[in-house]
Amino acid sequence: MSRVNLKKIILKPGEIPFAILKLMQSLDPTLCIQDDKGNVLFGDSGSASKYAIEAESGTVGWVLGETYGAELAFLLTELVAKDAEKKSLANEVLGLYREINLLYNLSEKLGTSLEIATVAQIGLTEAHSLIKATNGAVLLANEGTSKLDSIAILGDPTETQTQLEGIGDILRHVITSGKGELNNYIRLDPRYTNRGVPVSGLLCAPLRAKGQTIGAIVLMSDVIVTYMAADLKLLNTLASLVGPAIENALFHEKTMREAKEREEQLQRQIAQLKIELDQALVAKEVSQITETDYFQKLRQQAKDLRRPREST
To answer: For the segment 259-272, what is each residue's pLDDT rounded down to a tens digit?
Structure first.
């Protein structure tokens, strides 16, 4: 949470809060405003009663005043709350803009390829550019088994694969439940098994397409890290685009594979048909030769020549 700048909120010449302060000071000359460290921001420090100016993070300042001290402290507390609300709204709008921009750019990138590995790597690279991580992967669930196939890797492949084996149960839970997971204390998780390459924290989001979970995208850190809910939300947003793109790539690959198989089968059929056709042509030519008068005459002559030999 960002630090509240009380001075910036109340001491803007020409703004309503500053005008109110000047008016109240004319009514109560003992009014004084201090920050949380006791530094005077407005008025003169005296021995008047002291009232806290509160914010969500705690006390951010004090009002000293005999007549209107409590009222001014209440008013400034409300101003601080409104300022925090305004900043929160601004951050939310900025986050939404960032998310929309991300979706647009990623959609364009994913649309340039129908290769599964390329699509997965684009999604993983985009996630790493926005969220701190040392290792990561895009995984596909192997239909009919509990095996997970890595189709894109972030970091050293051997180390990352070892890390993935250590969090295998967590990954399978994400895929089975269809819900993302954020864990900054992975070493305390009973599902975690250290395989020699430790994991400190992780973010994992399911890859879904056509209502089914087909895999997961995971980011890991081998050093202490603090992932936030906003990070998981961002990864889920990325996964919502990467999942259908991988599904399209899988369908394209299947279509191409089936087309190749049909082509090979057709080539075999054509080859077999050619053989049969050649055999039929040979048989026809032989038949045409054997049915000629000349061939019949030769056959008869051959029989006549064999008779004397047979009689001796």
So the answer is: 888 888 888 888 88
Residue bearing tokens 């509990």: 146
- CA pair distance 188, 290, nearest whole angstrom: 92
Of how many residues is the chain composed? 312
Q: How many CB atoms neighbour CB 131 within 10 A?
A: 20
Q: Exposure pattern of 3-24 as b/e (b: 16+ CB <10 Å)? A: ebebeebbeeeeeebeeebeeb
Inter-axis angle of helices 116-130 and 229-290, to 10 degrees?
170
Say how far residue 222 (Cα) sits from the centre of its chain: 19
* Strand, helix or coil for residue 202: strand
Cα 57 from Cα 75, distance rounded (Å): 17
State how far the Cα of 254 lies from the Cα of 291, in Å rounded to an integer.
Answer: 55
Question: Domains in the chain and their CATH numbers?
Answer: 6-95 (no CATH), 115-256 (3.30.450.40)
The pLDDT assigned to 312 comes to 46
> Which of these, 112, 104, 105, 161, lies nearest to 137 by C-alpha position?
161
pTM > 0.90: no
Q: What is the CA radius of gyration of the chain?
A: 40
- Residue 49 CB-half CA count within 13 A: 11
3-class DSSP state of 62: strand
CA distances, 33 to each of 41, 54, 71 (Å): 5, 13, 13
Longest dimension (CA), the chain: 157
On whether the CB atoms of residues 43 and 31 are closer than 8 A, the answer is yes
Residue 182 makes CB contacts below 8 A (sequence gap 6+) with 202, 203, 227, 228, 229, 231, 232
CB 79 within 8 A of CB 17: yes
